[in-house]
Amino acid sequence: SHICLSISMCPDAFGFYGLLFAMFSIVCLGSSVWGHHMFTVGLDVKTAVFFSSVTMIIGVPTGIKVFTWLYMLLNSRVNKSDPILWWIVSFIVLF
């Protein structure tokens, strides 16, 4: 995120504040998704539905982060042969 911000110099809300919101949301939701790892202990249906829902909802801020990175890279003036650009693109693909 820091590399994309420094390369693109994006001052708009889709840049820094979008990433800040997404990271804060991932931290808050991520602290409550541990229950989907407990499927073998016999959780009741309501608890399983809660943890499954939170696990699916955490995909929204993750998508915001990925699409913000792509948006910032598309609007940057980085040379296509710059190694840092290829490192960022490979990180996004592996993420």
UniProtKB/TrEMBL annotation:
Membrane topology field: Multi-pass membrane protein
EC number in record: 7.1.1.9
Cofactor: heme
One Pfam family recorded for the sequence: COX1
PROSITE patterns linked to this entry: COX1
GO biological process: electron transport coupled proton transport; mitochondrial electron transport, cytochrome c to oxygen
Localization per record: Mitochondrion inner membrane
Catalytic activity: 4 Fe(II)-[cytochrome c] + O2 + 8 H(+)(in) = 4 Fe(III)-[cytochrome c] + 2 H2O + 4 H(+)(out)
Role according to the record: Component of the cytochrome c oxidase, the last enzyme in the mitochondrial electron transport chain which drives oxidative phosphorylation. The respiratory chain contains 3 multisubunit complexes succinate dehydrogenase (complex II, CII), ubiquinol-cytochrome c oxidoreductase (cytochrome b-c1 complex, complex III, CIII) and cytochrome c oxidase (complex IV, CIV), that cooperate to transfer electrons derived from NADH and succinate to molecular oxygen, creating an electrochemical gradient over the inner membrane that drives transmembrane transport and the ATP synthase.
Pathway assigned to this chain's UniProt record: Energy metabolism; oxidative phosphorylation
Positions of transmembrane segments: 14-36, 48-74
Molecular function GO labels: cytochrome-c oxidase activity; heme binding; metal ion binding
Keyword tags: Copper, Electron transport, Heme, Iron, Membrane, Metal-binding, Mitochondrion, Mitochondrion inner membrane, Respiratory chain, Transmembrane, Transmembrane helix, Transport
A Gene Ontology cellular-component term: mitochondrial inner membrane
Stretches assigned to the Cytochrome oxidase subunit I profile domain: 1-95
Protein name: Cytochrome c oxidase subunit 1
Family assignment from sequence similarity: Belongs to the heme-copper respiratory oxidase family.
